[in-house]
Inverse folding.
């Protein structure tokens, strides 16, 4: 596949791996994590997010929309997502930036060119992180991009949930400097309740990468009241892997709530917040188990 | 508590608690008493005698922990004193600008000061008096001599005060300074501070002077003292820290450019609002040698994040991060905690000055002073603004001045490049087959005409000054080589004369060109006529066009079209500035200094002007300085910096870039390393300037709601940093927008 669907590119990223990075978010994810903070990357298709609170009902989008997805009722602009073909014309005309298009099509060439823009800033440690959604679901595209970036001397990290077939990892491995690998829960039933999927393949793939001595950073998104009971189990699992695989505990936040609304997607975000202390406590548990813990920047 | 911590504590406490209208109160009371004296004397002598009396009467406060002496009584006037002040400033006997010339934004010859000392300078003046036959010159030189004597006497009084306190080492340093050349690091620093204090507290209404390349000019004193064993690195740091602390004792808290919280007498009162002194570090010399030494490091290490002054200007030399990693780490660490540190790309400034025509050596001895203005060091005189604000106006005829001033204005409004784009739009929408080239041609024809008129005015002003050499004496003349050598004021006798040529609202202009090119000529979504109608109507009824304009590519997004226009506009504007100046430079060493500096006029002028093709509505702020328009940098900091790297590296000598960062993002060792790498990459690739504010939207909003909790929150405004809670609301809002 020479084309990829990208929900966004974030330059100047310092949380998605080492050094200064550009993170590219690819669209589509096989999991449906209830706390997902990138809801715009869940669907595989391009889509429009409409931030109602910003809208001034000027009607520009109504006038530009060919499918009547936008319409006016009682002086207020409304959006029928079912009619939207994601042509993105409305995004380009909204004077108050209330409409955001998620899902731009890129060729390998065009994406690599854009990703190389910040190369002078990457230094020794930085580079590109492919994230999502689950970036590896667009396997061929990501493999081609990663290969090209490696040829250009840029480090590549893959941020993955692990829920892909084994051969996907085999294909991408030669071009990856580090995997940022999410572990959400060890308990299979719990994992399924929280993400909609069983975790057997995820754990197997993790072990596979570990056996292959790939550089890995495990990421444990801590959602208080949901998976904090898994901390020790995750520690046990890591201990059974190759020595020296570090873990970073990520703090759950609900910053994405407005995007759920904008995308007209059912808001599954937990109400409670994970505190800094919750993270420190989890880190302490893991550290006491002999696990290497990396602090988030 | 050691000496240093007490000094730092005092300065920090003073800065956080000083009332807005606090001033050096003795100056007002003493000058009021003597305002009728010496009325028959020419200005230089009247100035020198009044200053002599003033310096003989003001207090000489000393604290037990002072390592460097020099304070003033700084408080709010009582009601009675306020009445005296109001009468004083309107008194026909004493009108400011006539006796005490309110110097500011100037570069003293600090090396000369250290070379000769006060007594040496006095001797030079006295010798010149004997050899001069011109009466006017004698008067000028006599006044200079009297001022040196007044400073010497003031220093001796300070010495006595120090001795009385039992501070013998301090008293001895002061004696040295009063009686001869400085002979140690401590006495040299003491001399610099005494002169700075007198200028900032008692004379200049908005000093913002450069205190020089201290790591370069004090280095021999430092090395000698270390060799002699009379100074250690730690002791030198104590002196430097005290020198820094003293600067903050005289600094005010208010906001002078936009601030509505103070009254119109701010300058006359000398509140030292936003009057930063710029201290320069690092850089190169005229032969390309890097001037980084142990003192560079010590001055950097001593920066106190809580201080507002002096502003340390780091002259970044290529690969400074790699060649001086430890110094670079220190500077980045300080920059992330302080708002009194900025970086200029040494190569850019020197290259631009060389393009103008300065020699290699002169180009390397430039200085910056508040607010981010560049000068040709002590070789030149800034002609300082338009006729109405120029303190040394040689053209006396009001009518003539008015005539000459007209080209500076657009009716009753100042000249605005952004407004030019709109007028060109109006003109070209009537032309068949107009293209983007036509816009460029028209724009630069207008700019060229403006520069020609401006240069003609400045040339006339200079001609009058030189034909009838001015004997008006300012404090700056006491410490400027050319004044002493020619016995006339530096504004006539300096080798170079320059006036700033600012590419105001650069980002707004780039965005307007980009929007026109993209929407009309490339994508053909609208016609010139439609765009023109929409802009003239402030986009009312043209929401679709407003949306298109706002969604067009912008300078700061790092997109090909906006980058192309940024490059072309910057390149051509700089080229034109230098080209139009050329005949004047060759004839009389007069030129326009190209920069991208707008201070806070992006707000004031934004309020005056109508809509622009980039989608900016009437009355909204323009872009500030060299920075993109607020809110457009959707590709993050690196996207913004990449955009700015399209400005050629030998095009401008100044242009403030406010880098606003959330401190949490760059906390810890790794965060600092990353930020340092970003900055260094930017400068190594030819970036011009960066000044950093570290806070967050949350903190700014909380400060707005609860000012009492954030008395010490400093944010870079333009060439100065302001105390956020003392700013007026529109400036606060603008800063909050910046952080978004």
């Amino acid at each position: 596949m020479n084309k990829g669907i990208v929900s966004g590119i974030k330059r100047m990223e310092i949380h998605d791996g080492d050094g200064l990075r550009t993170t590219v978010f690819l669209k589509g994810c096989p999991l449906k994590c209830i706390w997902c903070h990138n809801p715009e990357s869940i669907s595989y298709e391009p889509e429009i997010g409409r931030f109602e609170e910003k809208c001034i009902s000027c009607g520009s989008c109504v006038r530009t929309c060919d499918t009547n997805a936008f319409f006016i009722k009682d002086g207020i602009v409304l959006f029928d997502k079912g009619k939207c073909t994601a042509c993105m014309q409305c995004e380009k005309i909204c004077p108050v930036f209330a409409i955001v298009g998620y899902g731009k099509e890129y060729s390998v060439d065009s994406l690599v060119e854009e990703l190389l823009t910040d190369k002078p800033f990457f230094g020794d440690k930085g580079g590109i992180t492919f994230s999502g959604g689950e970036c590896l679901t667009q396997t061929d595209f990501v493999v081609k991009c990663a290969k090209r970036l490696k040829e250009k001397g840029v480090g590549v990290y893959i941020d993955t949930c692990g829920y892909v077939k084994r051969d996907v990892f085999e294909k991408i491995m030669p071009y990856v400097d580090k995997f940022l690998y999410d572990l959400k829960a060890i308990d299979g039933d719990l994992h399924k309740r929280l993400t909609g999927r069983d975790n057997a393949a995820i754990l197997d793939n993790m072990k596979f990468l570990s056996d292959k001595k790939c550089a890995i950073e495990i990421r444990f998104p801590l959602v208080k009241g949901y998976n904090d009971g898994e901390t020790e189990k995750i520690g046990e699992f890591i201990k059974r892997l190759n020595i020296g695989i570090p873990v970073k505990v990520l703090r759950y936040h609900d910053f994405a709530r407005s995007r759920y609304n904008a995308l007209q997607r059912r808001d599954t975000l937990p109400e409670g917040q994970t505190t800094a202390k919750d993270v420190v406590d989890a880190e302490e548990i893991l550290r006491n188990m002999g696990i290497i813990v990396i602090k988030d920047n | 508590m050691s000496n240093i911590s007490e000094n730092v504590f005092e300065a920090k406490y003073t800065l956080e608690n000083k009332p807005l209208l606090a001033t050096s109160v003795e100056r007002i009371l003493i000058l009021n008493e003597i305002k009728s004296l010496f009325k028959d004397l020419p200005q230089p002598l009247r100035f020198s005698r009044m200053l002599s009396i003033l310096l003989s009467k003001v207090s000489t406060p000393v604290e037990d922990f002072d390592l460097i002496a020099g304070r003033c009584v700084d408080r709010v006037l009582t009601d009675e004193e306020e009445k005296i002040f109001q009468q004083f400033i309107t008194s026909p006997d004493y009108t400011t600008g006539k006796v005490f010339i309110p110097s500011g934004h100037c570069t003293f010859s600090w090396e000369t000061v250290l070379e000769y000392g006060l007594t040496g300078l006095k001797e030079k003046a006295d010798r010149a008096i004997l050899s001069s036959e011109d009466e006017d010159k004698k008067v000028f030189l006599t006044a200079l001599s009297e001022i040196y004597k007044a400073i010497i006497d003031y220093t001796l009084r300070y010495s006595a005060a120090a001795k009385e306190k039992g501070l013998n080492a301090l008293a001895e340093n002061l004696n040295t300074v009063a009686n001869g050349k400085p002979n140690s690091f401590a006495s040299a620093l003491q001399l610099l501070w005494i002169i700075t204090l007198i200028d900032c507290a008692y004379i200049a209404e908005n000093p913002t002077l450069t205190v020089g390349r201290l790591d370069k000019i004090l280095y021999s004193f430092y090395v000698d003292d270390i060799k002699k064993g009379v100074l250690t690195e730690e002791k030198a740091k104590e002196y430097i820290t005290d020198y820094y602390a003293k600067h903050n004792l005289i600094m005010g808290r208010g906001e002078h450019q936009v601030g509505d919280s103070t009254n119109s007498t701010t300058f006359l009162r000398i509140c030292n609002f936003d009057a930063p002194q710029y201290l320069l570090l690092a850089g190169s010399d005229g032969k390309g040698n890097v001037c980084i030494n142990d003192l560079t490091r010590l001055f950097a290490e001593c920066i106190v994040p809580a201080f507002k002054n002096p502003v340390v200007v780091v002259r970044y030399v290529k690969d400074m991060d790699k060649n001086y990693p430890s110094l670079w780490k220190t500077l980045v660490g300080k920059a992330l905690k302080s708002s009194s540190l900025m970086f200029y790309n040494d190569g850019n400034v020197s290259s631009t000055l060389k393009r103008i025509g300065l020699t290699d050596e002169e180009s390397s001895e430039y200085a910056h002073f508040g607010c981010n203005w560049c000068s040709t060091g002590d070789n030149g005189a800034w002609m300082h603004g338009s006729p109405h604000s120029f303190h040394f106006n040689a053209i006396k005829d009001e009518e003539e001045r008015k005539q000459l001033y007209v080209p500076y204005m657009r009716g009753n409004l100042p000249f605005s490049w952004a407004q030019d784009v709109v007028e060109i739009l109006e003109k070209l929408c009537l032309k068949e087959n107009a293209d983007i080239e036509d816009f460029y041609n028209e724009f630069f024809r207008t700019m060229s005409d403006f520069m020609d008129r401006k240069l003609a005015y400045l040339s006339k002003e200079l001609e009058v000054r030189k034909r009838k050499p001015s004997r008006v004496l300012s404090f700056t003349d006491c410490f400027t080589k050319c004044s002493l050598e020619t016995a006339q004021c530096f504004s006539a006798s300096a080798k170079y004369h320059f006036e700033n040529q600012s590419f105001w609202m650069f980002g707004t202009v780039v965005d307007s060109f980009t929007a026109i090119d993209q929407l009309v000529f490339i994508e053909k979504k609208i016609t010139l006529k439609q765009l023109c109608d929409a802009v003239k109507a402030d986009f009312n009824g043209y929401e679709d066009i407003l949306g298109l304009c706002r969604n067009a590519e912008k300078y700061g997004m790092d997109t090909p079209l906006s980058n192309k226009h940024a490059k072309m506009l910057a390149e051509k504007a700089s080229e034109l500035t230098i080209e139009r100046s050329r005949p004047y430079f060759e004839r009389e060493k007069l030129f326009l200094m190209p920069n991208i500096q707008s201070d806070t006029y992006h707000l004031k002028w934004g309020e005056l002007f109508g809509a622009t093709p980039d989608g900016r509505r009437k009355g909204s702020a323009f872009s500030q300085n060299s920075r993109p328009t607020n809110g457009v940098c959707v590709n993050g900091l690196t996207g913004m910096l990449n955009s700015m790297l399209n400005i050629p590296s030998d095009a401008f000598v100044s242009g403030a870039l406010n880098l606003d960062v959330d401190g949490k993002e760059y906390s810890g060792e790794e965060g600092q390393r990353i930020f340092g790498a970003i900055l260094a990459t930017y400068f190594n690739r030819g970036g011009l300037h960066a000044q950093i504010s570290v806070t967050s939207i949350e903190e700014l909003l909380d400060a707005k709601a609860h000012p009492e909790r954030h008395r010490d929150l400093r944010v870079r405004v333009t060439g100065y940093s302001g105390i956020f809670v003392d700013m007026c609301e529109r400036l606060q809002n603008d800063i909050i927008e910046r952080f978004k």
